[in-house]
């Protein structure tokens, strides 16, 4: 009978492997590890090792960062995924739905800012009483 268990040491990736296969710097791998976004262990030679699922986690982190998701939001989202399990299609759907809400909020704030800038183009007054960029919450109106 064949033993189907996989020895994690035999399939583990080094820091350099993760960096190379993910297209990121070694220092970024260490950073993600230190921030708890990915996990590692030390082998018998005291070298850091990563399970192969880390490649999909890093891919997820890179995509999320590219679309402007904060590291804290990424950390929270990844914290619900079991370690040493590759994020599944349903994991990705849940994460992308959650991040879509955050992106919609960011887009809304940026559109508002752009519209406020339209009012300022060619003006330059930067008046607390008049300028929506200088006084975005219209704080002066409530004084
Ligand atoms: S600079 Fe004048 S309204 Fe903003």
TrEMBL record:
Task: List, alphabetically, the Pfam families matched.
Answer: MerR (PF00376), MerR-DNA-bind (PF09278)
User: What SMART domains would the database entry show?
Assistant: HTH_MERR (SM00422)
Q: Does the keyword Signal apply?
A: no
Q: Which Gene3D superfamilies match?
A: 1.10.1660.10
Q: Which UniProt keywords apply?
A: 2Fe-2S, DNA-binding, Iron, Iron-sulfur, Metal-binding, Transcription, Transcription regulation
Looking at the keywords, is Zinc present? Answer: no
Domain HTH merR-type positions: 12-80
Q: Which PROSITE patterns match?
A: HTH_MERR_1, HTH_MERR_2
* Name of the protein in its database record: Redox-sensitive transcriptional activator SoxR
**Species name:** Chromohalobacter beijerinckii
Provide the taxonomic classification. Answer: Bacteria, Pseudomonadati, Pseudomonadota, Gammaproteobacteria, Oceanospirillales
Its gene name is soxR
């Amino acid at each position: 009978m064949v033993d189907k268990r996989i020895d994690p040491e035999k399939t583990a990736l080094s820091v350099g492997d993760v960096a190379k296969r993910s297209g990121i710097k070694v220092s970024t791998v260490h950073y993600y590890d230190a921030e708890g976004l990915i996990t590692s262990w030390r082998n018998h030679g005291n070298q850091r090792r990563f399970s192969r699922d880390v490649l999909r986690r890093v891919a997820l982190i890179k995509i999320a960062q590219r679309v402007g998701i904060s590291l804290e939001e990424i950390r929270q989202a990844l914290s619900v995924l079991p370690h040493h399990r590759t994020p599944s299609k349903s994991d990705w759907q849940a994460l992308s739905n959650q991040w879509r809400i955050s992106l919609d909020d960011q887009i809304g704030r940026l559109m508002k800012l752009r519209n406020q800038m339209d009012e300022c183009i060619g003006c330059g007054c930067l008046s607390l009483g008049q300028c929506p960029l200088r006084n975005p919450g219209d704080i002066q109106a409530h004084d």
